[in-house]
Design goal:
Elements lengths: L5 H12 L7 H8 L3 H13 L4 E4 L3 E4 L8 H5 L11 E4 L5 H10 L7 E4 L20 E8 L8 H20 L4 E3 L3 E4 L2 E12 L4 E11 L16 H5 L5 H22 L1 H11 L4 E9 L2 E10 L5 E5 L4 E4 L3 E4 L2
Parallel strand pairs: 3-4
Antiparallel strand pairs: 1-2, 4-5, 5-9, 6-7, 7-8, 8-9, 10-11, 10-14, 11-12, 12-13
Helix pairs in contact: 2-3, 6-8, 6-9, 8-9
The structure holds biotin.
Length: 328
């Protein structure tokens, strides 16, 4: 499926700008440069995404509520002029925003480009898993970064993304949000956000890093196979949450932490991460890697962002991959 036609974005922008009045169909059509029939068809597809648009016979269309859809015009209106989010590519449906972003990065997309979708048909998770990507309920976004850093810096970029997401989610919802290494967000012990970092690099230089961020926002229930381990912001806050507001906050926080990393280096991120996560120090965990499973206690982060652990048999290790599960 191609990215969203810029004229649909214009249509939404026009309706939002004139939210208090009924806008005649032909006027919309001439302003965005399509036929009235096409306007009607696009309005029908926006309705199927939950956008409430009133049709007044012989008069035109009027928005009932400001839509919570992640199109560039609604996001850009809330973002300042910073590199992250200056260029936003929107899809109503795509396979994986990470796959699209990696492709765009290979074609030369600029630093800060954001790919966002209302729905993914093949959302990718960490460790080869799938990411549940229900239509219009979650945020599925991939951000392209072009840092002039070595590939060794990639783990800290991953931690940085987790910190930014934590800050964005807690400020938009008021919920208490924990970070499980490396960057899962948990609310009341269940996962609400996952991050998959993918990159293209040479041995000594990162070409592009794609931060793929999935947030469960307005799901009213999780599928049975996930309900014991995952939840949504709506289910925890007991109210609907604006996806636009969460994504805008996320892009702003990413810009802030990215500048901090460039200015002050890894330590600025790892110290903040340690302060923000209950998993940093003294947490009893089960470590799951390709080599098997073992019980351990966490002892902080090293300068590269690896999680230091002490196994129950006394061995110490700095973990760079795999999975950490809390043991109660
Ligand atoms: C995890 O397993 O915790 C990471 C999940 C990452 C999901 C996001 S959704 C947007 C982006 N596109 C993808 O295909 N995956 C990431």
């Amino acid at each position: 499926m191609p990215s969203t036609d810029r004229r649909i974005d214009k249509l939404i922008h026009l309706l939002v700008k004139n939210a208090t009045v009924v806008v005649p169909g032909p006027k919309i059509a001439s302003e965005i440069g399509v036929t009235p029939k096409k306007v009607w068809r696009w309005i029908e597809s926006l309705r199927s995404l939950g956008v409430e648009i009133r049709g007044v016979p012989m008069e035109g269309y009027q928005l009932v509520t400001v839509p919570d859809i992640l199109v560039p015009s609604l996001l850009r209106a809330e973002l300042g002029d910073h590199p992250i989010g200056r260029n936003i590519v929107h899809y109503f449906r795509t396979d994986s925003t990470n796959a699209v972003a990696l492709q765009l990065a290979a074609e030369g997309a600029e630093h800060g480009t954001v790919v966002v979708a209302e729905e993914q048909t093949a959302g990718r998770g960490r460790l080869g898993r799938a990411w549940y990507s229900e239509k219009s309920s979650g945020i599925y976004a991939s951000i392209i970064l072009r840092p002039s850093l070595s590939p060794a810096a990639a783990p800290v970029l991953t931690l940085m993304a987790g910190l930014a997401a934590q800050k964005a989610v807690s400020s938009a919802t008021g919920l208490v949000v924990d970070i499980r290494w490396p960057n899962d967000l948990l609310v009341n012990g269940k996962k609400v956000c996952g991050i998959l970092t993918e990159m293209s690099a040479e041995l000594d230089r990162l070409h592009a890093v794609v931060l793929g961020i999935g947030i469960n926002v307005n799901h009213s229930l999780m599928p049975p196979e996930l309900e014991s381990i995952a939840t949504s912001l709506r289910m925890e806050a007991h109210r609907g949450i604006s996806r636009v507001q969460v994504l805008v906050a996320l892009l702003r926080e990413l810009e802030r932490y990215y500048q901090l990393l460039l200015k002050d280096g890894n330590r600025a991120i790892t110290e903040r991460w340690e302060a923000a996560s209950t998993f940093a120090h003294g947490k009893r965990v089960r470590i799951v890697t390709l080599a098997g499973e073992a019980l351990a206690t966490t002892t902080g982060l090293d300068a590269s962002g690896a999680l230091k652990i002490q196994y129950d048999d006394g061995r110490q290790e700095s973990l760079v991959g795999g999975e950490v599960v809390e043991v109660k």
